[in-house]
Amino acid sequence: MKKFHHYITILAGTSLLLASCSVGKKYTRQDMELPDNFRNNEIVLTSDTLALSWRKFVKDPNLTALIEKALIKNTDVSVALLSMQQLELSYKQSKKGLLPTLDLNVGANRTWLSTNSLNGSLSDQFIGTPYMDDYNATLRLSWEVDIWGKAKMQKEEALANFFGQKENLSALKTRIIVQVIQSYYNLIALDEQLKIAQKNVQLSDSTLSMIRLQYNSSLVSSLAVEQAEAQKKTAELLIPLADQNIAIEENAISILCGGFPDKIQRSEGLDATVVGGTLATGVPAELLSRRPDVKAAEYAVVAANSRIGLAKAAMYPSISLTPSIGTNSFQFNRWFDLPGSIVKTIAGNITQPIFQKGALKTNYEISIIEREKLAVQFKQSVMLAVSEVSDALAKIKHSDRRLQLIEAKSNSLAKATSDAALLYKSGMANYLEVITAQNNALQNDLEQISIKREKLNAVVDLYRALGGGNDTE
Fold it and tell me: Which residues form a coiled coil (predicted)?
């Protein structure tokens, strides 16, 4: 017995000595080779914070109320929060990896032995019954020595998954904020398109009335009346289309805000929607710390790095100690008759996988490939983030140029429409010139609204691409 205790002591000492060994490698970020500046970065930089709060970025009270509602009631956010709770529980569980497990087993059984067996004959002779009872209560402790740092790697993986989900939640909230803002702008743009269509219907109706008077006076043919009628219908067709799109956009915003389709309160025009001032773009390298989706992609690589260590540790031997203590008796009334019924066991085990049909090695190689895949995806997310900033900067720059040009074009077409009507009344222009001028003005007004909406959406895209909007607590 003393020799056995000596072996157990040696085993425990060896376990503690090896416990400092670790087969996992510490994660190091790969070289991104990022450019020094963003392309098309001609926006004047300010001293504003790079991650501007969405509450400061959004100035419209109606829009602010919609975003607040979306961040609380959106179903995707609710699901993401529940996923975070799951990962938090997994992390808390991983922190207990070094603790032993303790099990209590209480059981009783009765066995009728064969009378022709040795045990059966002895049982009948010494116990006086044709059966044998066994009452057992055992408290068993099991502890695996963390030789290769598996508990640490499990904790690192769980922590990386938790923070990755936290960044995914921030990215989701940012995306929802942007979707609500852009849908809100689209809704207001549709309102303006509806107003322009209604205005053009009135203008076309006035022109049609004038041409009918001239037709009744035999000054123009029926062709002029039909052309004017067609021009009026062109404007009228825009009204039900705008009403349809308005209803669809309101429904989409309602769903984003976690409610059923309903009317949406909004400002009167795009010019009344104000967003934050000039954004400081910084440099591409700062996206690594500002973009939640980029940070989530890196946490995925960190978790994969820990899984490689765990897969490698699975190929190495494991050492466990399993002491137990309990009571055992063949008579119920003497089950807990101490100390006679006490039974004690102490055991140490070393388990070394030898032949697993190559499964452990395959799992290890798969985990390496998985980390390489996630590393490539992480780099791709960084490249995409830099590209999104550059795209948004290009849209803002060229939208400003288009707005200047279309403003000048609007002035020219407004004068052309007015002059065409005057010339037509004085007989110096025909009805086709009047209709053409009105149609050109209509199309130009619709295009101007689209460009304004594109400019606002581009500013919002830049805000998101720079990592803004993630202060969503």
Answer: 432-459
